[in-house]
Amino acid sequence: MSVPLRGVKFSTLVLVVQIVFIIIIAFFGRYPDNADYPEIYDPNNTNAGDVNYAKYPNFMDVNGMIFVGFGFLMTFLKNYGFSSVGLNLLLSVVFIQWAAIVRGFIHADILGGEKFHMGVGDMVTYDFATATALISFGAVLGKTSPIQLLVMGIIEILLAQLNEYVGVDLLHVRDIGESMFIHMFGAYFGLAVARVLFDEDIETSSKEGTVYHSDLFAMIGTVFLWIFWPSFNGGFADDQQQRDRAYLNTFLSLCSCTAMTFAVSAIVDRQGRFNMVHVQNSSLAGGVVVGATANMPMEPFGALIFGAVAGIISVLGYRFLTPLMSKRLKIHDTCGVHNLHGMPGVLAAIGSAVLAAMSGSWSLHDRIAIFPETFEENSTVTGALGRTAGQQGGYQFLAATITLGIAIGGGALTGLILKLPIWNAPEDEHLFDDSENWEVPDEGVPLGNSSNHYKISNTHVESRM
Amino acid sequence: MSVPLRGVKFSTLVLVVQIVFIIIIAFFGRYPDNADYPEIYDPNNTNAGDVNYAKYPNFMDVNGMIFVGFGFLMTFLKNYGFSSVGLNLLLSVVFIQWAAIVRGFIHADILGGEKFHMGVGDMVTYDFATATALISFGAVLGKTSPIQLLVMGIIEILLAQLNEYVGVDLLHVRDIGESMFIHMFGAYFGLAVARVLFDEDIETSSKEGTVYHSDLFAMIGTVFLWIFWPSFNGGFADDQQQRDRAYLNTFLSLCSCTAMTFAVSAIVDRQGRFNMVHVQNSSLAGGVVVGATANMPMEPFGALIFGAVAGIISVLGYRFLTPLMSKRLKIHDTCGVHNLHGMPGVLAAIGSAVLAAMSGSWSLHDRIAIFPETFEENSTVTGALGRTAGQQGGYQFLAATITLGIAIGGGALTGLILKLPIWNAPEDEHLFDDSENWEVPDEGVPLGNSSNHYKISNTHVESRM
Amino acid sequence: MSVPLRGVKFSTLVLVVQIVFIIIIAFFGRYPDNADYPEIYDPNNTNAGDVNYAKYPNFMDVNGMIFVGFGFLMTFLKNYGFSSVGLNLLLSVVFIQWAAIVRGFIHADILGGEKFHMGVGDMVTYDFATATALISFGAVLGKTSPIQLLVMGIIEILLAQLNEYVGVDLLHVRDIGESMFIHMFGAYFGLAVARVLFDEDIETSSKEGTVYHSDLFAMIGTVFLWIFWPSFNGGFADDQQQRDRAYLNTFLSLCSCTAMTFAVSAIVDRQGRFNMVHVQNSSLAGGVVVGATANMPMEPFGALIFGAVAGIISVLGYRFLTPLMSKRLKIHDTCGVHNLHGMPGVLAAIGSAVLAAMSGSWSLHDRIAIFPETFEENSTVTGALGRTAGQQGGYQFLAATITLGIAIGGGALTGLILKLPIWNAPEDEHLFDDSENWEVPDEGVPLGNSSNHYKISNTHVESRM
């Protein structure tokens, strides 16, 4: 009777979580104030609503990345497609609500009687927060139960949002596309969880592979992430010039990154062929690597250089580092998030520190628009914090270091919690296998190695009856 | 020689319909007036074109729902993917033009010599009208010929648009995302057609099933419908505040609905596993259920509650009601539109009646913006129709009842017309089978049960030569 | 040892190209001027940034066409899906950068010390230029190596941009959706290359076919191209009225074209069935055929007529012309670009000449807005070039003729260059086969004819070790 219990446990958890969310939001969450619509309520202001036209399409693109992009990118596994796109959907809807609550409590004075506001401009921040946990999902894909994933994400989003608060609100660090606070955090948190959950059976599972069409499904995720990424990096920009720069820099960085991905993929293959894993993932590292600096005046060639470097290290990571990490460090990284989000995120953080330190050479307008805290001796304008450009660079670096620490520490701790034998963790023969959690069509055997696969899962089903 | 005849009959019908459409539109359809572009033609107005920036992206999202969303959502059947996404394309392009004509004749004074205008703001209304018939398509998927579907949609769109005219223009009812006029109408119309066309062979067909990858193709439809749905519910809003509310409410409702979908799906399964049918469809009920109220001030928790309830009843509907309806009531609902559009649509209608009846407690601004017809005793503002909040609630309910009546009556009548032996209705062995209407790749056998499937269709082909 | 050499040759080429691009852009490419952001830098201007809100969503849609649309449309081949969507990604990122450089040198006074600007408004022009080469890719799909494709596109984009310069800047011709300068050019250039590269083995290859699911993957490309096409044709419009017209005309043209596609597809099939090739491709000819005229006042029925004609000739082309061209003219057109881009492009050019010649009957405002060069005797406004409407029609026709000449001549020449035995052209058994250039999953055999396929490729792999 363990099977129905499993369903009951999951359902009860989700039901309770959903009811709690509704109660919290009923007490503390509200629509934006009418004052946010001056074009309606303020007869003297005819134009203030404009900014909303930009916000919603931006949100739509980011939303596409969360539900289409992440969902399909992970469908590359031959027997784990339902879970990839399906659990991605489940996790996202829970995490989005949780992010609304966590962000509300952090950024509104709830204890002082304030409500937190939920508007179109906030929706994209919920998606951003959710992305953090979906990145970690990639590291443990196929090796965790839905309940484990929910618990992981709920802890992670709390920690990630607190970390972001430290970085943005306390240290006054800039990270427009959140390469530190989302990509780096999500990757290293997930890797730490994967380390703690490591099991020798993962290494030897015959199901961790692709089939021809599963690789094509994954490319749906890749191309949509690719095209929408400029909106991810540009969505938070304060003015149209920074926004446009973020769009352009991200686009260019993705281009050179993708070119380098193909070049390096072919050269590290013994037969000079391209590897789908690289194309699906490393092509996107160009979006991560400029995520902390996309609004800065690096000129187009700067973005191209960032992207090219990211493409190179990402493919090399897949080829040499990932197998090594699995064998030596017992960190099994299913999607290779270290190569797509981890190392490019670190590179982005370093880049932001370097560019910030060089911001003394920018135009005064750029310096003030991007780093209002930076102090510039030769000008009459003084940032509120009186920082030099070099100091701002130091703070950027400091925030990255803190992020890394909280991510790894928090991930390890979360991994220990997930090891408790109460979360329906998948047994060995169900690693990378949908049939554990999904009704799979009887005759719809995934391509290749199929008779064996379904013999196993049928046996399993019978043994439970 | 029946085969070429079949092609000739279909082609002649489409050709004639297309030529008639062109003639009607040549006589009566025109571009918008120059006056609609005051920023160009009125030198004193520098800002009036703004609203167009919001309209077009909204249209794009809705267009994505029609062609990508509906098209791929129905590809879940293992041998009916070409028809699902292909016929969805054919039907949409015919229905869009028909909707332009029907709406033109209803809303412009054609007899008085007026032309009807076709602009960017109108395009989205054509897509809306088309959605009605695509929902009905879901109810009869795999059991009807392309000609039957064309005839069905042409009748249905005429009736649905007349019904919408009664509701919106005569009864002054609000249904921003058209949960009554599109979702309810389309679902119950389709179910009535399905009832009349019922045949015992449908129940016993071995082809009404999925394979692993067809379920993944269907998820493409799901995720795109999911992300674009806020634009569907918000596209008709009169001002930015209502639009933003519609976006947020729809997004939140989808979130809680999806969470409940997974929770209930796991608990009603004997082995505690998720069911792809539920995830693909019930997750979207959250968009339908707030479609009539998305612009109303229900606060975020209100949207979450609506969504959660919709998710629960939708999954329960799939699990218990759909098989019962097929067995007892002889209503075979291929896609389960009753669970995705029908019941959530009814719930939306009831919700709109209740909220309207409670609108006396809203801010004066909201009351006037959303129900200009509502009369409020304690204020100095009187709606043109002098209705109380309670009366407006009654009208909302009345419109829903009329919608249900016209949908069921019209659907039954249409079903009878479709039973005439002149529409190339599929014979039993061709139910849920592309090879009746499509050249299917010889060696590209769909997964599973394939040798049998193609033995049948080859025999069929030979027997016709 | 030829295999590693192959990888090295490709990688070196891409690496060198990428470094050269970065150097050129570092020297000559810059962000837009601050003056382009008057709402930021000019305190008197509160509204000037508006136009950017329209530009970016437009770019996003076009970007979706390039990476999602073209990429997946070509995945119809059963064993060539990795290459279709993968090489499409590689080629696009290289061509986008190259287009930025070529356009920069053509349109900025580089020799005079000027830099060229790269902004959000320019990004869409890079995508447009890239589309030209992707269309040609369709003609030679499966028959060329990645290196050949890169070389082809680099030559082609240079020629196509020069041709566009002649047409737009010297001859003052209008082609808003670039049906001449992109679609016609890309198609006839690609066909000329295909002619020169023709080989009897192409005709007899057993791998040039589809499987059930590869046809569904291709439909992803079709529906996204379909929905985004209005943004392609409307993106360059000068004002909102022209933009809206372009959206509406393209939408309507696609509708009637798609209806005709189904009608003609069924009638030319011996069994009255639809053909996926037609649906995937001919449905889109409606976007091409109004590409040169979408902003012109042709009224809705005009757009419907254009589309209907395009659908008819496109399907007839696939059915009768394409096999004939392959057999008689030795032009093997893998994707049938002649039917989707070639003939509809010619039709669009002729249409633009005819409409231009009739522009004397338009409103004065339209005439001036669309053809500022046209001289109109009966008005007080004189175009700078003093042309009559008829003369403008002549210039439109002249530009089309020049385009055709440069495309065919340039394509033939490029084909000869690609015949040099240094570009790793695929040998006969690797035509239409991913395993030449991609690591293909061992057990993930594509459906149908699979054992044979992989026996061949395994042999091949062994023979190289």
UniProtKB/TrEMBL annotation, chains A, B, C:
Keywords: Ammonia transport, Glycoprotein, Membrane, Transmembrane, Transmembrane helix, Transport. One of its GO terms (cellular component) is plasma membrane. The keyword Nucleotide-binding does not apply. One of its GO terms (biological process) is ammonium homeostasis. One of its GO terms (molecular function) is ammonium channel activity. Its main location: membrane. It is a multi-pass membrane protein. Residues 42-422 form the Ammonium transporter AmtB-like domain. The chain crosses the membrane at residues 12-31, 59-77, 89-111, 180-198, 210-229, 249-268, 300-321, 342-362, 395-418. It is found in: Membrane. Belongs to the ammonium transporter (TC 2.A.49) family. Rh subfamily. This is Ammonium transporter AmtB-like domain-containing protein. It comes from Arion vulgaris.
